[in-house]
Amino acid sequence: MAGRDRVVHLLRQLERAACRCPAHSNTFHQGSGSASCTVRKTDYAFEMASSNIRYGEGVSREIGMDLQNLGARNVCLMTDKNLSLLPPVKAVLESLAKNGVKYKVYDNVRVEPTDTSFKEAIAFAKNNSFDVFVAVGGGSVIDTCKAANLYACHPDADFLDFVNAPIGKGKPITGALKPLIAVPTTAGTGSETTGVAIFDYEPLKAKTGIASRAIRPTLGIVDPIHTLSMPERVAANSGFDVLCHALESYTALPYNQRSPCPPNPINRPAYQGSNPISDVWSRHALNVLAKYMKRAVRDPEDLEARSSMHLASVFAGIGFGNAGVHLCHGMSYPIAGNVKTHSAKGYSVEHALVPHGLSVVLTSPAVFNFTAPMCPERHLEAAEILGADISQVKREDAGAVLADTLRQFLFDLQVEDGLGAVGYSKDDIPDLVKGTIPQERVTKLSPREHTEEDLSLLFEASMKLY
What we know:
alpha/beta; six-stranded parallel β-sheet; two-stranded antiparallel sheet; 16 helices; 8% strand; globular
């Protein structure tokens, strides 16, 4: 017994001495985690959930057979007015017609949807008794379709019942939904893999959403040919969403430091914190993005680069769909929601718009400079993947190095020079902070705790990038 006690004593000493950065410590594998949640404050388990994914050039032609195999009798196809005239929708409709599938098209999806546009799509779905849903488009289309499916299958629910707290009630989804097939046309949101649907809640001028594994698509059909129709700035902004999905999920609070510990598995959130499986997907997405994103933006005919970014979007989607995001996304929601007059290049919309990927990436240098002290090794690894030489860099300089690396990356891709360039000033900071506070579903996954003053300083630091 004395020998065993000595071994246990040594192991405990090693554990106390180990690096506490979740990237390089053994915090994910400590055996004490299985204690009941009646005595634990933080979680001890994580789940891995994702849609089935089918990838291949021209694979959209199979969707009509998929719907036949599902026994579909009345299909809802959702898209937006611009996409309805483009090859991706045409390819899907040809497949449906060839296989004799009955369908109705809803093309009134709003780019950057609102609670109002969600409700209009929900009403369409409720009035037509669809048995399968198909979404052809970017994140706005796929998210709208998720919401339409959810509320059509829960006709008595109030709209805020399933919306994330504190804006909504955040109720668990217990009823079955109809099958949903997502056909993404942008390489960014990863919405084809996740149980998340994001929208602008107009009464608060802030983004919120619905987050539940129950709403994730049954199948994501990832056809790289569809990305060739993306304009340059859409490709860039979609790619920035991939970038931040990968970086935020990889640097998020570890799952076993997230509180509270759910009393029942149904209460375990989709966004659980960084974990060993999500880490693999997020890191790989970052590697692919570092190699191909600039090529994909600069040459719309570069099928290899655009195909690779389409896959990177899927990889990052699986990563963040289970780990979550944190401050860049939490702060992006009021940036998009409070937009005044900014006109986004490459987007055929009539309303003022700061595209989601742009609203996310503008704060990234400031955010990762702020979070780096909590897990500097991960921040340095990300900087190295993005091209920085870290051979002589000290751990305490990790944030500055990653921030500088990101600024150069954004500058090379001609990103607007901070929040000031999309219509904001220091006078807007209180409203931006106010819009960030309700986003605790994601902001609480920041590896570093933060105050309202911290958020104010991050917004101020993001007013100008270069």
